[in-house]
Amino acid sequence: MRSSWSAFRHPTATQRVLVAVSLAVAVMTVREMVIYPAHYAVTALLSVVQVIAVLLIPVMPYPMGCIGCLAMLIAMLIPDPSGASMLLGTWECLFCIGYRSKHIANLVWPAAVIAIRLWFSLNLRLQPDAYLFLLALFLLCYAGGALLKQRQAIIRSEHDALLRKQAEQRIAFERRCTSAASLIHDSVTNDLVYTILTLDNLMSDTDNSVLRQMLGTVRDRSSQTLNQVREAIRVLDGDESAIAAEEDRNFTSTIREQAREGDRYLASLGFSGATHTDLATECTGIPVGLRRVILGVMRELYTNIAVHASQQGTYDIRMSADGSRCVIDAVNDVGAATLLPDKPTSRHGLNHHRRIIESYGGDFRTNREDGAWMLHIDVPLKPPSPLV
């Protein structure tokens, strides 16, 4: 009873329809009782019982459906020439019995109703065409309720299957993230720590100031990369503190620091050029994923220039951000030969960034013309949501 009352307080679409139908059926039955008053009090009482059962059907469909049908069956056995027909209530009751039926034995209800109405019609010597359609309606109402129940069961099954699939996909994704974090920790992190320790030993053993400075630069770069790798591991492990720390970091100062480091890095390799930034004092509210991809593009640009650009030419990177949009334009001369021929390449770096930027509604274009490679990026800093 408690579950029925809870369902009544939070009705489904089917229950709301049942409420409307029950009210209409009750009103029509009462109208028949007034227009065609019963000769016997028991007939009127049975009509009232069915009206009450019909009104309670939205709360307790199956038991009230059975009571309503039973009231009609008993009324048909009473030789009362007047009174309500009780047809509308019986149709609704049979529909609800079929809707809540859990066993084929419930077919006894439409069978009993059809049998009693057939007996009643034969006693009145009615023509077959006057009652066969009426009898068929009893069976159709029961079948309609059973079909609706089956359809809702199929919908629930499909919904449950979708939820299971989503849960399996989420678990598989979490496993991939965990495996990736473990692989990065076991290989990249350990190798970087070994590299930093080796560089520390080399710096302490050498007396050459120029070499010590170069080793220090490599050591600082490796240490910075190690911190970024550890942050990536925390994100893969679902550590929200890593994301929160990145959100609190000043975007403008981070970009300027990245630009200075990139220019120093390329200058140490013999490249000439500069990065020009025109950034608003405060750029806040930028999604973490977009912050990462913008910084990733900057790092990728410096790496690509070091590997593919001509040392005899120049490079020029310009970045502007006004708090609502970020624009990056880069151009460099293409070298005839790569500076680092043994560097492993994935050929997916910029393409990966392109997909993410376009998912935020940004524009990402590259072009190669007259020996120069060009890039243009224009992306909103506060997109509504990534379109992925």
UniProtKB/TrEMBL annotation:
GO cellular component, one term: membrane
Keyword terms, alphabetized: Kinase, Membrane, Transferase, Transmembrane, Transmembrane helix
Keyword Transmembrane helix in annotation: yes
InterPro entries: HATPase_C_sf (IPR036890), Sig_transdc_His_kin_sub3_dim/P (IPR011712)
Ranges for domain Signal transduction histidine kinase subgroup 3 dimerisation and phosphoacceptor: 184-237
GO molecular function: phosphorelay sensor kinase activity; protein dimerization activity
Membrane-traversing stretches: 37-56, 107-124, 130-148
Name of the featured protein: Histidine kinase
Source species of the chain: Bifidobacterium pseudolongum subsp. globosum
Lineage: Bacteria, Bacillati, Actinomycetota, Actinomycetes, Bifidobacteriales
